[in-house]
Amino acid sequence: MMSHWIGIAIIVVPVLLIAALILKRPVFWFLTVLIAVGIGYLHYTGADVELGNAVLVEVDKIYPLGDGVPKPGEVGQPQPSNAPAPSGY
């Protein structure tokens, strides 16, 4: 779900910022409506999620956060014991 919003933000924010600086008010609002229609189409086809996923993958390469779960053999994770399972169940 987060990749959906990231994809939309990557598409909308730069276009609206540039349009707000360059265009007059009526043309700006017309462009805003056209962008909304275009975002609806991109959402329908799934392109916003693909773009968001691509950005999140690249960000994870730069700033790897991991999933918070240590991998086997790392400090902090209990090792499995060879003790037999308790009986009586």
UniProtKB/TrEMBL annotation:
Transmembrane stretches, start-end: 6-23, 28-44
Domain of life: Bacteria
Keyword terms: Membrane, Transmembrane, Transmembrane helix
Segments of this protein annotated with the region Disordered: 70-89
Composition-biased stretches (Polar residues): 78-89
Name assigned to this protein: Uncharacterized protein
Organism: Filomicrobium insigne
